[in-house]
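Usage

Read records sequentially. Each one opens with the input sequence:
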Amino acid sequence: MNFKTLTLLLLFFLFGCARLGYLTEQGLHQAKIQFRGVDNQKVLDDPKVSEEVKRKILLIGEYKKFFYHYFNAKPTSIYTKTTTLDNDAVSYLVIASPHTKIEAHEFEFPFVGSFPYIGFGKKDSAEKFAKELEKEEKLVTWIRPVYAYSTLGYLEDRILSSFFHYNDLELAELVFHELFHTIFFIKDEVDLNENLANLYGKELLKEYFKDRPELESFLKDTRKREVLNNRMVELIGILQTEFAKLGGFLTADKADELTNRFIEEVFKPEARATCQKLEIDPNDCKMKDNWNQASFAAFLTYEEEQDFLLKLQTEHELNLKDYLTWLRMEYQRFQKEKKLDSFTEHLKLKVSHAPIAAD
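and closes with the structure output:
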């Protein structure tokens, strides 16, 4: 790793909190991932590596080739090396929210903007930081394991051993999602970036596996999951409405009590009922025990806006390639006009709304 790469590495992890211990730990964690990367061909030639792992490395190469050819884009060096992790997850995200709102706390990152989470390479470090946020900032926290991520071109992303837990179609969707970040990314708009990557990951999956029998089964399960997720978004909206009604009268203790009662009496029963109705395998529909304001905020980050983006594409009758071109042009227009605070707001104004019927 040369000096330029190492400098970028350190800058990438220099967050607003700027604690030396944090900077050192995360810098070393990322450096370890980079240094331990082995050329894919060496991994493929290693007799100690399982045939299944080798097969998936080759698959990732095929997915990458398809992606850049599809968009007629110059391939990056992403996924040319493989890193074996010490843990199942590559990092652990801490998401925080006020007690009286379902709203992700923003953490500032230099060069790439603000994000509604902060990452740690070690779970115990994430847990320690979460406790500090709860005590010092009076926030609710939730920790989420992460199995893949993009450094947005600042570093040469590796294939991670955590990828190999996914089946072929899940892996394709994951790779397409992460690769999308290498060709389109808007600073300070995490929700938009993630949901666009989700949309493109899903749609490219359909393109790659088109006319193959395993695709229909996968899509059927995906549609069921989408219905469940939409229902969960609706349910979370009920709690948000209750918080809004109480306004300034809502204390942290009352908010926690209301949230816990909502989870046990409304959220979990309704989610389980939806699972049964959709005939989703109970093992795939277990309701985790650590739902709170922060985990609700995290869920909304990845689920709430996908319908809006798909509607936008459909209304303009754009295929995936033309949609990306259109998004880039709209972003240039947004930057030139400087009328709105976010590109998301700019895009939402492009979505048509049904006329209100007269009384």
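Summary fields computed downstream for this record:
- The longest strand covers residues 91-98.
- Residues 178 and 201 are 8 Å apart (CA to CA).
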